[in-house]
Amino acid sequence: MLAFLDRDKSVAPPGYSRWFIPPAALAVHLSIGQVYAFSVFKTPLVERFDTTLTAIGVVFSISIVMLGLSAAFGGKWVERNGPRKAMFVSGLFWGTGFLVGALGVATGQLWLLYLGYGFLGGIGLGIGYISPVSTLIKWFPDRPGMATGMAIMGFGGGALIASPLSAALLERFGDTPADAIVPAFLILGAVYLTAMMLGAMTVKVPPPGWRPDGWEPPADSAGAAPAAEPASEGVSVEKAFRTRQFWLLWIVLFCNVTAGIGILEQAAPMVQDFFGGVGPAEAAGYVGFLSLCNMIGRFVWSSTSDLLGRKRTYIGYLGIGGLLYLLIAVAGTNSVVFFVAVTGVILSFYGGGFATIPAYLKDLFGSFNVGAIHGRLLTAWSCAGIAGPLIVNVIADQQLAAGRSGADLYTFSLYLMVGVMAVGFAANALVRPLPKAEPNPEAEPATTDPSRERV
């Protein structure tokens, strides 16, 4: 039965519609996107373990770090074995993470929660995040930004489903939320495992040499990206890792994520500190709004990059984003509507940056190893997931110790984020096409038609 998971068993037959692939990818990304709703469990877990918010917050940090590491080290395995086996493995790790986490909660062993939801679940996150990326790019070479945006949108929107579902489960089982954590974890694990297995069973890869009807690779990609490459060409992950372009894009992603996640992690207390009349319910609504912007931005801006080009799109993310941070620092307290609108745009850029980067990598390095290259680049997310919240929280604590309050807790952080975005803007400006690549002997042949020229 496991042979069904092999890459050669998942090749699409003639006439197969590529539009079956995005739903399979969404089944995985909507499931693993639950990690953005982990905060729903924070207070009940603090009560259950009689510990601090920081101790429970470590669970989230472990999962994000493992996401980046497993994507980096598992990327080439995913490329070699195909999306079906990768989605299957991701589902096993993600579901097992909930199971082991539930065991830790039931027995009062916090280290089991770290091991389950954090370590094992984080591996599932990383493998699941990159598993559909290169497949979607191969199915949609004419619109790679839109294709990756459709899937990665699910990761941003997973919290919109998981938050109310988790809250309902915590209310339904047990006299208190702390008593309901174990059944909630078990139910969520079963639901997500089922959804991810359905995605794994339905995903397929295109046959060698497949192209959309009537589509030919353009002579030059939009923006500053190099010419599109046929599938027989491209750069291996080892070679890409040693290029200047890879590390420039690492800096670009790190800066965009650092700035965005700093707001996302501190969103509820920040809006309450900026505007004293905002209560917990309104703050929760604000967090939901930011999640919606994050989700929509992943699809809208990545699709726009197919028209503008990846480099020009990142000029918008980092250049306009930096100006918006400056506006919040200078005039953010003038109007709650202004504050919400501006931060919503920033979070849409944050999400768009995640969804656009795979297509940017494909433009630069070709499609041969793009999933593995993307996996290694996601270490920037792991680092940014630590740096962004650390900048905001440490500076806020220092301002509190100095007797300041309200928006003053965040002003210096916002100015720092302007500088972070400027660094990313400069790195993006330095990205140049690779020299003309030689054919890659490891890749599949793109076509048997000798009349087609390399580009």
From TrEMBL:
Gene3D superfamilies: MFS general substrate transporter like domains. It is found in: Cell membrane. Residues 1-436 form the Major facilitator superfamily (MFS) profile domain. Its main location: membrane. Keywords: Membrane, Transmembrane, Transmembrane helix. It is a multi-pass membrane protein. The keyword Transmembrane applies. The chain crosses the membrane at residues 20-41, 53-74, 86-105, 111-130, 150-169, 181-203, 246-264, 284-301, 313-331, 337-361, 373-392, 412-431. This is OFA family MFS transporter. It comes from Nocardiopsis exhalans.
